[in-house]
Amino acid sequence: MTKASDLVVQCLESEGVKYIFGIPGEENLDLLDSLSRSEQIKLILTRHEQSAGFMAATYGRLTGKVGVCLSTLGPGATNLVTAGAYAYLGGMPLLMITGQKPIRRSKQGRFQILDVVGMMSPLTKFTHQLASADNIPSRIREAVRLAEEEKPGAVHLELPEDVAADETDNTPIPASLTRRPLAEEKAIRAAVSKMETAKSPVLVIGAGANRKMTARVLYQLIEKTGIPFVTTQMGKGVVDESHPRFLGNAALSSGDFVHRALESADLIINVGHDVIEKPPFFMVRGGTEVIHINFRSAEVDPVYFPQIEVVGDIANAIWQIKQEIIVQPTWDFSRLLAIREANEAHLKVGADDDRFPMYPQRLVADLRKIMPADGIVTLDNGVYKLWFARNYKAHMPNTVLLDNALATMGAGLPSAMAARLVHPDKPIVAVCGDGGFMMNSQELETAVRLGLHIVVIILRDDAYGMIRWKQSNMAFDDFGLTYGNPDFVKYAESYGAEGHRVNSAAEFAPLVQKCLNEPGVHLIDCPVDYSENDHILNHEIKELSAKI
User: Fold this and answer.
1) What whole-number distance in Å separates Cα of residue 253 and Cα of residue 404?
2) Helix 384-391 and helix 360-370, axial crossing angle in degrees, nearest 10
3) What are the pLDDT digits (tens) for 370-400?
4) What span, in angstroms and rounded, lies between the C-alpha atoms of 85 and 451?
5) Nearest residue to 209 (alpha-carbon basis) of 261, 145, 263, 150
6) pTM over 0.85
């Protein structure tokens, strides 16, 4: 016979789990004891459950394997909700395990008891209370299967205290051999025919295309055909954005050079489109036709109703199209490439601006020069995300980790920590606004305790800058969005990290390079000036792109 909590650990080991992130409570003590004897799984004790969830979700995003986080019942479980939504919308395989009071007898009345399974239902692919030790292997196997299969996402299991202490003779269920269905041949032929008869087709690469094999065959398709491409924010780096056929990233909602390119195309091949992202284009009746290529059929709404759907494994579908398509002499990409040149020219504006506090264009350009192709930048959520999405060219998949799904604050630092665990040798930088950083800044202690080498850049404007920008756009008074900050250098040092402060634009790049070269946790306080955001993002870009 096996103790149920030991069986949970055995099942997770069978699934290849290496880390569990979280904060145990008294209802998890049986599971914690079982974990202490695991030679495969390491417990990463965090300072907040939300951070644990962000770390586990990022682990899933980077590896394609389920990331696991742990909390107790009640307030511990509610603290996982944001991270669960982050993984659910963002397509990251995540398993949340929460504790619960004994379910066969009342121990403390209703103290701390919530319907956690019901609470998790709207933001997970699967949620279940483990009411019997005998069911543990099948429920864990099912949860992991659903978390990892397309579209990946969050799942949840609740392990009551008395069930964790039960005995059972069950054993883990091994994963089955599974293959994703392939796109139907007629759909492939229809897509190829439509592409060959178009005059100026363009590829849009979205979140669902961010898979290793898909990236490889998309590059091959672009090389064979020369069809230009646009990336969405969560499709960054699927194909190297320094490619001469890269038209730009759909960072802004409208009015950018990429939108002029999409308007100029007579066919959009939409690869990995996910409705959780802000759409890079809207369809209109009688307008540009769209081919939808994805693991799932399109979710049709008034602004998205593709004429052809290629449903199945994306990588295989692109490979089939690449094999079948014949390069057409009638294709004309001259206007699209002219728009690309105008966009490239605008990306250089401000890249060497010496003003201080730093302008975001200079900061993004300097960081891109410093980071190698495989270096990873994790972003929190704020107005700087638009600058990074638009101006920071990603050369490889999953090297710019931003969230254009839930778009939550507080994930930048935990994501960098998870990235370091997955990639111990790559340069890793977290870029956070001062508002987002302070939401999970306590994890500096966790990073120091784990001996991680990460660089955290805080863009300090002493305000919730994104909302303040929107407030200004709407002609409202400047109200309710400014605050004070600690001395970030001393704050970092109080946790045992290294604190640094930027005093001029010229200091920034050498300081970041120095921090990347020296082990440990480094925090850089960098004042930033967003005063020209409205002029550039809302007016200048629209005016320049309209002239093309």
Assistant:
1) 12
2) 50
3) 999 999 999 999 899 999 999 999 999 999 9
4) 29
5) 150
6) yes
